[in-house]
Design brief:
45% of the residues lie in helices and 12% in strands. Helix 14 links the parallel strand 10 and strand 11. By secondary structure, the chain is α+β, with helices and mostly antiparallel strands. The protein is built from 18 helices and eleven strands. The chain is globular. Among the domains are: 55 residues, no CATH class; 38 residues; 206 residues, Nucleotidyltransferase, domain 5, CATH 3.30.420.10. Strands 6, 7, 8, 9, 10 and 11 form a six-stranded mixed β-sheet that branches. It has a three-stranded antiparallel β-sheet with strand order 3-4-5. InterPro entries: Homeodomain-like_sf (IPR009057), RNaseH_sf (IPR036397), Znf_AD (IPR012934).
C-alpha cells in the first residue's frame, strides 16, 4: 500500500485517508489536494487513497499558510483611500485627501490663463508710474525680477541670505563617564535598602542613569509600597487562564479579571504583575477544547485504548514519552507592549523538558533551553536493551516525536504507538510535569546567583528547582501516574466525554 502523492510504501508511518475531514472540519483532504495541486484523484487498485505522515504535514502547513494570507489580505480593505468630489463649477475641483481636513484646489488651464493675464495687465501699468518717479521703479522691478527668476530656477535668494550670517561653531564635549566603583556603590546601596538616589546625586550621576544600573543589577525585585491588588492565588488563576488559552491578550485578561475577580485594573498593571512569571506552554493540539469530544476524536481515542490494551495483553512493556515547555512572561525591551497581541510569544525565554517513564521507573528526563530531540532520551537505553527490544512499545504524545523516533528505530523491532489527538491527559508524564510545575511555583523567587538581570535570575531558579526534583522521582511516582492516567480507559471505551481542562 503506497502513498497517494509521493508513492512511498506505507509501512511504519501513520496514514491518513484522503476522504477524511481536515483540521478545520470544513474541507476534506481530497478537496485540499485538488485545490492546491491542481490534480484529480481517482480511486484505482494500484493506489491506496491514503497519505503518508510527511505529505499530510506539508498539506497542513500550506493550508494554514493560505488561510493566514487570506486573512491578512482581507484586513487591507480597511485602509482609507483618496476621495475626490466634483464641485458645481466646471473649472474648479475640490478634493479631500484621506481623513484630513486639508482642502486641495485643482485649477484648470483657464484659471492659469486668467492669472497670467491679470499679471500682464498689472505689469503694463507699472512702468508709467515708475518713469515718473525716477529710478526707484528700476531697482524695485529688478529686485522683483531676480526674486521671481530665482524661484523658477531653484536658486532662492532668501535661503542664500542665511549664509551671510556666520554660525557659531558647536563645541562637542566628550560624554561624562562614570567609574565602575560608582556603579557598584549605587547598586550595593540599593540592595541594602538605602537611599541610592541620594547617593547618585552626591556622586554626580543622573537619576535615569542610576535607575538603569539599579533595575538591571539588582539581586531581587523592587519592593512595592502599598497594598497589592492581586493575591498570590489570584495571580496563579490568571496564569492558569494563559495556560488554557495561549491566544489571550492583555485586554482580555483585564476584562476577565473584572468579571471573575471583581477588580478594575489597567493592562500595564497586569503586565507588571506577570513579569518574570513562569507558565506551562501546551501544544497546539490542546488549544481547541471544543474538538476534544467530537465523534471522530472519540473513535480515535477508543481505537488508541484498544490498541494499548492489546499490547498489554501480550505482556509487552509500555514506555510513555512526553515533552513539556515552561515559558516566562517578559516585557518588551523597547516601546510599549501591544495590548492586542497575545501573551504567548516565541521570543520569551523557554525551558524545554522531555522524558520517558515505564512501570519500572524513569528511563530518562532531560531539560534544556533548546529543543530536545527524542532520540537523545533513548541513546543510553538502546545500548543496554539492544538484545531484547522487541518486547517494548513506545507511546508518543505528538507527531514530532513519532516521526523522529520512526526514523531513529527504522532498522529495529521497537513498536511505536501515537497518542490519540486532544488526549494529553492519557499520558502519565502530564502528571509528572504538573508536579514539577507545582514545585517551581512553591519556591522562592530570590536566587543565590548574581545574574545580569531578573530574567536570567528567574530562569536559574526554575532550572535549579527542576534539577533538584528530577532525581527524586521514584518508581512509585511513575506507577501512580500510569495508574491515574489509565483510570479513564473504561469511559473511553464506552464513548463518554472526557473532562475539558
Amino acid at each position: 500500500m503506497n502513498c497517494e502523492l509521493c508513492i512511498i510504501p506505507l509501512r511504519r508511518t501513520k496514514s491518513y485517508s484522503i476522504y477524511d475531514e481536515f483540521f478545520d472540519d470544513k474541507h476534506r483532504l481530497v478537496d485540499v489536494i485538488e485545490k492546491y495541486l491542481q490534480m484529480q484523484l481517482k480511486s484505482t487498485e494500484s493506489q491506496s487513497s491514503f497519505l503518508c505522515q510527511s505529505c499530510y504535514t506539508h498539506l497542513d502547513d500550506f493550508h494554514k499558510f493560505a488561510l493566514l494570507v487570506k486573512e491578512k489580505q482581507e484586513s487591507l480593505n480597511d485602509i482609507p483611500t483618496i476621495k475626490l468630489e466634483d464641485s458645481d463649477d466646471e473649472e474648479h475641483e475640490i478634493g479631500y485627501i484621506r481623513d484630513t481636513d486639508v482642502l486641495v484646489e485643482f485649477k484648470t488651464d483657464g484659471d492659469m490663463q486668467d492669472d497670467d493675464a491679470a499679471d500682464m495687465q498689472e505689469d503694463l501699468l507699472i512702468p508709467a508710474a515708475g518713469y515718473a518717479n525716477g529710478t526707484d521703479y528700476y531697482n524695485d522691478s529688478r529686485s522683483g525680477f531676480e526674486y521671481n527668476s530665482s524661484w523658477l530656477t531653484g536658486n532662492d535668494r532668501m535661503f542664500k541670505s542665511k549664509n551671510c550670517f556666520p554660525k557659531t561653531p558647536v563645541r562637542k564635549t566628550p560624554y561624562k563617564t562614570h567609574t565602575p566603583e560608582d556603579r557598584s556603590r549605587i547598586v550595593d546601596a540599593a540592595n541594602r535598602g538605602d537611599d541610592w538616589s541620594a547617593l547618585a546625586s552626591r556622586l554626580g550621576v543622573k537619576y535615569k542613569t542610576a535607575y538603569t544600573w539599579v533595575s538591571t543589577s539588582r539581586k531581587e525585585m523592587f519592593l512595592k509600597s502599598g497594598k497589592t491588588s492581586f493575591t498570590e492565588d489570584e495571580i496563579q488563576t490568571i496564569i492558569q487562564w494563559i495556560e488554557e488559552n495561549r491566544q489571550m491578550t492583555l485586554k482580555e485578561i483585564v476584562a476577565k479579571v473584572k468579571s471573575h475577580l471583581k477588580k478594575d485594573v489597567c493592562v500595564y498593571f497586569v503586565e507588571g504583575t506577570l513579569e518574570g512569571r513562569l507558565y506551562q506552554h501546551r501544544r497546539s493540539q490542546d488549544y481547541h477544547p471544543h474538538l476534544m469530544n467530537t465523534i471522530e476524536n472519540k473513535m480515535k481515542r477508543s481505537e488508541y485504548v484498544k490498541t494499548l490494551k492489546y499490547y498489554m495483553d501480550l505482556k509487552k512493556s509500555i514506555i510513555w514519552l512526553g515533552e513539556a515547555n515552561f515559558k516566562m512572561f517578559c516585557r518588551r525591551a523597547k516601546g510599549r507592549f501591544n495590548t492586542n497581541s497575545t501573551i504567548y510569544a516565541t521570543c520569551d525565554p523557554t525551558i524545554y523538558m522531555m522524558g520517558a517513564i515505564s512501570h519500572d521507573g524513569v528511563l530518562d528526563l532531560k531539560r534544556s533551553r533548546t529543543r530536545i530531540r527524542p532520540e537523545e532520551i533513548f541513546k543510553e537505553w538502546m545500548e543496554t536493551k539492544r538484545d531484547n527490544i522487541t518486547n517494548f512499545v513506545i507511546v508518543c504524545d505528538s507527531d514530532y516525536c513519532f516521526s523522529e523516533l520512526d526514523e531513529y528505530f527504522n532498522n529495529s523491532d521497537v513498536t511505536l504507538l501515537l497518542l490519540s489527538p486532544y488526549s494529553c491527559t492519557l499520558n502519565p508524564l502530564e502528571i509528572i510535569w504538573e508536579n514539577i510545575k507545582t514545585n517551581i511555583k512553591s519556591q522562592s523567587n530570590i536566587s543565590h546567583f548574581i545574574p545580569n538581570d531578573l530574567k536570567e535570575q528567574r530562569l536559574l531558579v526554575a532550572e535549579k528547582c527542576i534539577d533538584d526534583m528530577l532525581p527524586n522521582i521514584t518508581v512509585d511516582d511513575c506507577q501512580n501516574a500510569i495508574r491515574n492516567a489509565n483510570k479513564r480507559n473504561k469511559d473511553i471505551m464506552d464513548m463518554l466525554d472526557m473532562p475539558v481542562y
